[in-house]
Amino acid sequence: MTDLEIIKRIRAGNFKAYAELVERYQSAVYAAVWRCTGDEGATEITAQSFVRAYSFLGNVNTETDYAIYLFRCLLMQLQESSRVQNHADVIPLYEQI
Questions:
Q1: Are 11 and 18 in contact (CB under 8 A)?
Q2: Percent of the chain with pLDDT over 70
Q3: What's the burial of 97, exposed, middle or buried (CB within 10 Å: 0-12/13-18/19+)?
Q4: Which terminus of the chain has a smaller tally of CB atoms within 10 A, N or C?
Q5: Sign, Cα dihedral of 15, 19, 24, 27
Q6: What pLDDT is recorded for position 80?
Q7: Residue 48: closest CA among 82, 88, 86, 16
Q8: What's the mean pLDDT in 14-34?
Q9: Quick one: pLDDT at residue 83?
Q10: For position 48, what pLDDT does the model report?
Q11: Burial profile 46-71: b = 16 or more Cβ within 10 angstroms, e = fewer
């Protein structure tokens, strides 16, 4: 079954069909995250990427390859995670006084 067929099933109300897309791409997404983060939070970022992709699934252009869409979501998640991580080390000025 193609990604497009699975997406059509999801849009028709078969929300469990998303598990097929997760299963299909989970290893590739995890590997990409691991290469970028060195395993620091790779499992969590992978899961969050799939959640992000699912939440915007209604916006997916059916002519666009789902893998491209998913990896765009992954990049956004990595950027967000990086911003959060970079701010974790920042001590607010009022705590320094």
A1: no
A2: 82
A3: exposed
A4: C
A5: positive
A6: 86
A7: 82
A8: 94
A9: 59
A10: 93
A11: bbbbbebbbeebeebeeeeebeebbb
Number of residues that make up the chain: 97
Contact (CB, 8 A) for 79 and 58: no
Are the CB atoms for 62 and 4 separated by under 8 Å?
Answer: yes
Q: Which two tokens stand for residue 3?
A: 């990604």
Do 60 and 76 touch, CB atoms closer than 8 A?
no
Pull the structure tokens for residue 94.
């009022």
Pick from 45, 52, 44, 4: nearest CA to 24 = 4
What span, in angstroms and rounded, lies between the C-alpha atoms of 59 and 82?
25
